[in-house]
Request: fold
Amino acid sequence: MTDSDIRAERPTVGGPADRDANAKATDRPARRRKANRRSSSRKKASEKQPRHPGTPQKAQSGHEDGPPKAEFRKPRKRKRRGRGRVFARDGEQTAAAGSGQQAKATTRKHAEAVTFSAAAGSEATNDAFAALDLGTNNCRLLIAVPSKPGRFRVVDAFSRIVRLGEGLSASGRLSEAAMDRAVEALKACAGKLQGRSIKRQRLIATEACRAAENGAEFLQRVRSETGLDLEIIDRGTEARLAVAGCSPLVTRDTDGVVLFDIGGGSSEIALVDLSRRRSGRLADHIVSWTSLPVGVVTLAERFGGRDVTPEIFQAMVDDVLGHLARFKGKDRLAHLIKGKNFHLLGTSGTVTTIAGIHLGLARYDRRRVDGLWMENRDVDAMIETLLGWDFEARRQNACIGNDRADLVLAGCAILEAIRQTWPSERLRVADRGLREGILTELMADSGAWRRGGSRQKRPAHEKAR
Reply:
């Protein structure tokens, strides 16, 4: 058939047949455009098919044969721009297989489903964990929710100096005044716990209640007046929890560390060997530990804490050295002490006070103190400075205050004895300890950082990025 024959077969322009033909020609590209959006395979097939020379209406529409090449590149461009949008990536992949409207609906459904799952995980973190530590000198509480693996976010805290062990070394009993102070602090802690949705908690008492004749009687009073059920932990558990609480401050290149917690009635020391294969829990690498029956309160009561001369200070150091000499496992890190990857790690009010004074803080700031590295000469300088201050000068310092002014030099004496036993060029300061260790163990044991706990695993397509 020739071009003239084709032209002859067309109806006269402007007649009814012409209008019908034009309507059909108009409907045909629309129907085919809709069909093209349903299947990307049809788009590709129509793109490859050559245009029929005898159908000028198709050529004029520019759609029946498939979109221009520039339009085919658009989905790929959108995909590249959407690489950072986690929820959109699966939706865009679905769009390639279905119609545009179906793809948009699928994308929205997918995004809503994943967002709901993430929100459900966030709600799960509202179930908090709590740790309370009633020591010889302090009553402390932490309430936290899990965040990243091995980490948590503190949502509430409480700390008060109660001096529960005041006079204990002389009488062997907790005094009425000391118990009253502790009960009042524990009532405040109970109020904080009642105002939260607590998933798991652990409330511990340490040396003062361990050593006191009336320790168990006191805990019964606490239970009846506050509703809190405290447990007395042994010294080994106390040392392990201190190590667990400070584990984030031990770097990966560390071979050995002596971790110590100078308390009010006792001081826990743990030797950690990391020179061999390293596991997830730092406490698994404790090779020896001890609990000295001396703390800042007991030592200050024996030697005096207000007016401390260099001679009195040295007598304190010698007393602690005598206890350390009886520690049979003190040489378990002898092969690592001279290496560059060995250091001391201290968690107590003593070391944080020294760090705050070293930094010249007008007001104590935990964010600047926790994790601070101090050189050996810096620690020497701070101890000498404190020895040169009288009681009033210590009391007026913002990092010491009235409550610690008569205890800080006793703590320095314990620190000095530890430094002489395990010489190290570096000391790392930790403003953390038992409570953080309790929280870490509670969250790990409850699976808070596993799938289905507070943390959701990343989708497979996100891991691949």
